[in-house]
Amino acid sequence: xxxxxxxxxxxxxxxxILAGASALAGANAAVVFATGAIVGSMLAPSPSLATVPVSCxxxxxxxxxxxxxxxxxxxxxxxxxxxxTGCGAVMGLLACVAVLKGLFWLFCCATxxxxxxxxxxxxxxxxxxxTASPAFRPRAISWVMAGGIFAGVLGPQLVNVTMGIWxxxxxxxxxxxxxxxxxxxxxxxSFVRIPLPPPPVEGAPAGRSLAxxxxxxxxxxxxxxxxxxxxxxxxxxxxxxxxxxxxxLSVSDSNTAIQWHVVAMYAPSFITGSLVTRxxxxxxxxxxxxxxxxxxxxxxxxxxxxxxWIGMVLLGIGWNFGFVxxxxxxxxxxxxxxxxxxxxxxxxLIFGTMAVGSFSSGHLLASYGWSLVNDVVFPPVVxxxxxxxxxxxxRHGRQVPAV
Length: 403
What we know:
By secondary structure, the chain is an all-alpha fold. It folds into 2 domains: about 1-195, Growth Hormone, Chain: A (Up-down Bundle), CATH 1.20.1250.20; about 205-403, MFS general substrate transporter like domains (Growth Hormone, Chain: A). The chain contains 16 helices and no strands. Helix 9 (about 215-245) packs antiparallel against helix 13 (about 305-330). The radius of gyration is 21 Å and the shape is globular. The protein starts with a helix and ends in an 11-residue tail after the last helix. Mean pLDDT is about 85; it is low at about 400-403.
C-alpha cells in the first residue's frame, strides 16, 4: 500500500470519528443557543443582561482559538481534543449548579467554558484533512461538516426531553445531560490517530508576515465579509429564543427554530465548495449576505412561529454561504506556509467581533424590541456588499496569492 493510500485510509477512519464528535460538540453548542438567553433572563439582575451568557460563550470561542493552536503544535490534536471536551463537561456541571443556586455569574462562567469547547471543535474539520491526499481532502472535511447536521437535531431534542425533569429547576437536567454528552465525545476522540506535525525544515520559506497579509485588500474584504456574516447570524440567533418567548411562543417552538437553524447552517456545506469553485467566492458571499438580509425581512414581516422558523432557516443558509465563501477567499490569498497563522488570526478576529454582537443583542432586545434587532442587520450587509463591489471593480480583485 502506498503512503498516500495509507494516509487516506487513516483519514477515512479519523473523519468518521470526528464526524461523530462534531455532532456531539455541536449538540452542546445548540443547547447553549437554545437555552442561554432564556436562563439568562431568569437569573440576570437586569433584562438587558439576558444574552450575556451566550456572549460569554462567544468570548470563550475567541479566547480558545490561539491557545488551542499552540497546544496542538506542541502536543498533538488528540490532547487538544481532550482538553476541549473536558471544558464541555465542566460547562454542563457549572451550568447545572448555577441554575440550582440562581447564580448568574456562575452561569456566565459555565458558558465561557462551553465556548472553549466550541473553539476546539472548530478544528475537527482541519484535523480530518491532516493525513488525507488532496483528492480525498474535500470529502474528509464534508464528512466532518455533516456532523453539524445531526447536532442541529440532537441538541434541541436533548433540551426538549430533559428540561422539565427536575422541577422547579428548569433546564438543570439539560446541562447535566450536556456534561454526559461531552464525556462521551471525549471517549470517542480517544480513537483518533493523527501524527504530530513535522518540525519545520530549516531554510524552508516561511511566507509573508501577518502584517503584510493584513494589508492585502482581498484579505481585508474577506475578513469584513466573514465578520459581518458570523456576527449578524449570532446577533439574531442569540435573541431569537428569548424573543419567541416574549411573543408568547413555547420553548418547544424556539427549540425547533434553533434545530432547523443549525441544520441549515451545515447542510449546504456539501455544495458550497462546488459553488465557490464554479462562481467564485465573492458571488457566493453576496448570495449569503442577501439571504441574511432576507431572514431579517421575514422576521420584520410578522411574529408568528412560521416567521421565526423560516427566518432562522434563511439565516442559517446565509451564514453558510457568507462564512464559507469568506473562508475560501482567505485561503485563496495564502501560500501553504501562511495558512495556519492566517486562519487562526482570522478566526480570532471573527469570534472576537461576534462577542460584541452578542453583548449588544440583549440590550437591543430588552430596550428596543425584536424589530430593531433585525433592523440592525441591514447596514453591515450594505457595507460588506460595497466592499465586495470595490474589490470587484479594482485591480485588487484579480490579485494572485503568493506561492
